[in-house]
Specification:
The protein has eleven helices and eleven strands. The protein is an alpha/beta fold. The protein has three domains: about 80 residues, Winged helix-like DNA-binding domain superfamily/Winged helix DNA-binding domain (Arc Repressor Mutant, subunit A), CATH 1.10.10; about 100 residues, Periplasmic binding protein-like II (D-Maltodextrin-Binding Protein, domain 2); about 100 residues, D-Maltodextrin-Binding Protein, domain 2 (3-Layer(aba) Sandwich), CATH 3.40.190. The radius of gyration is 22 Å and the shape is elongated. The N and C termini lie far apart (about 50 Å).
Amino acid sequence: MQWDDLRFFLAVARKRTLSLAAKSLSVDATTVGRKIDRLSAELKASLFEIGPNGHMLTASGNELLKHAEEVERSVIAAASALTGEHSRFVGTVRLSLSEGFATWVVARHLQSFRSLHPEINLEIVTTNGFLNPSKREADLAVMLARPVKGPLIARKLANYSLGLYASGDYLDAHCQPKAVDDLKRHVLIGYIPDFIYAEELRYLPEIDDSLVPTLSSTSINVQHAMTRSGLGISVLPNFIGALDNALRPILPVIQIRRSFWVVVHRDLAGVARVRAVIDWLDTLVQERSTSHVVFD
């Protein structure tokens, strides 16, 4: 069994499709399929079942995954020791973020990171649902909840608040709500309940369990755009709502509290380029906290 075959196996296990695995490995899907077939034949075991969600590990595949990840950790450790990677601020860091935090905080201040570390390339991923550092899908993630399992190191990055917002145009055209019950007579904007990927995103039921969105989207940026255009009232993080002069806070007594958690695989926690990103994120939220923008 060769490490190269295991590398292809790990890519398919993490990406779930041959095409995505091929893209991550910079090869074509045919090559990936051939490598997996060869490994299956060598082990005399079926490693994947193909279903609606792509390539899913069989029992044999899950057993191989444990050993393949051990080999991967050894390869990474050896490479780091020989190249000095642990102490160099150079290379690529894949960072998994929520869309709102990525757009309204990280991207807006990324120039400061580029100035500090011009040789570190950041790949910022904002898919619905976070990439999993324990499966090496990302080097680093800022998540809405602390993971409860996996070879991960997690710590709180910051607390933040969310509130109700509407545009001035909407409030000029409608009676401003004075109490929670009044919200039932307004157009509410929120997430599509069936597509909520983290329980921490269920905001409206936290205000009143009878509230449901009239207009909905999987994207917080789309929800913000709908709110800004005067379509209704939404729950937005204050680091979005408070920064948009076109929006006004509604029922400011309602403040929903959430936290961001920095999560990294324990094998990467000491790598210089990963530490540099974590340190910069710490500085970023600390600076926003001392301005009046809502991290604490």
